[in-house]
Hints:
Number of helices: 25
Helix content: over 70%
Shape: globular
Distance between the termini: 35 Å
Number of strands: 0
Radius of gyration: 23 Å
Structural class: mainly alpha
Largest sheet: none
Amino acid sequence: MTALALPARTVQRVGLLVGLTLSLLVGWFVPELHEIEGYGSRPAWAAAVVVMMAVFWLTEAVAIEVTACIPLLLFPLLGVYGGGYVSDLGATALRYLDAYVLLFFGGMTIGAAIEECGLHRRIALTIMSRLGAEPHRLMLGMLAATAFVSLWISNTATAVMMVPIAVALAKELELALGGRRLVHLGAALMLAVAYGANVGGIGTKIGTSTNSIFAGFVSNRLGTEFGFLQFSLVAMPFVLLFLPLVWLVLWVHGRRDGIRTSAGRAVLERELRALGAPSSRERAVGSVFLGAALLWMASDLVRPLVAPGFEQLFGFRFQSKHYEAGVALLSGFVLLTTRLLSLRALFSMPYGSLVLLGGSLAMAGGIEASGLSAWLSGQLKLLSSLAFPLQILLAAFGTIGLSAVASHTATINIVLNVLPQNVTVLFASALGASCDFMLPAGTPPNAIVFGSGYIRLSTMIRIGFLLNILAGLLITAYMLGYARFIVP
């Protein structure tokens, strides 16, 4: 995914040059960053690193995981925390072991076990078969099944799993129509996979890395904790409101093929028969998964009972993120020790996402500790002085627009640090980071379905542009209405 319509290698080389040049210019030639009382030159060096990382992330000048490690190298060398090399190295390294990183790791182990035993596929096919086999119901089933699975495993893995099912359904329908190519319905089914994966991932803290980045940012920077259930109480209703809009837009496009057949039922029944009865392994993994989900949702009830003991033993404030990370790690441990998760699957997990999350938290920590955040707050007074609805509108549409040309993780890392430091405004940007539907580069699911052969770029742009606008408007109305009253 690149930020410009140029050869990838060219964009990377330009990004590398621009990132290094701007970093040096900011570090050496912005006098006010060297004159902040009590901080010396630390804000300037922090700003230099942040600018370098932002440009590298936007252009993918180097691998995003490598960019995420830059704070670990440069913050201690530049004395950003102001405590000496060893102290700064320790403070930076701790960000890569933050409770949110451990929570995401534990969530990944649960997702990997679900994938390895095939439980995710059974869940998806069951949802689709229950919703019906007529074309409009197949579309709804594809969206609902993909979104539900994406709540618990990565958007990318969900899309990879669902694309073959969508292709099989399209081909079965084409066969029932004598081989006629389903130009519109085929594209709509594929886009339902991408958009279902993107929107579904919004609903939980572990649904997508941008949610974890947001939760970690507001916890460390603003001191606002989102429990697992509390996060879902804010985010899940948005998912439930937006999915019908996505279905409507896709069905308006898909119904242009004018088909009325239930031929897709044969595919669903065949796939379910091939799975056979649920295995003992599936049932065991499902039990661990259900237990973890219930414990996460019961955080506000259980955590007060165990927090005093942890605080007495270890001398730190036991927050919801520690409880949730503990549940996730315990679940992963149970899965490994009972061999419900193989070492092969464990080692195959996308660990780059953990590095990226740690790097995001490290960058935010450096901005705060160096005094750069105080300077930025002064520079962003214009944004903060805007009417609150305009701040939400800017956060929603700005994030959606930027994620159309850069990865959603790069986008959220940048906008969280430049938007007004208000939790509701930042939550709007977290929702928007998963809501680009217009370009293959927007999110991995967009790119995956684009390779199915059923989607033309002009079709994705036209449908995606409309959904981008609807998403931005819904996020704005949603955050100003329901969400505003329950966000801490």
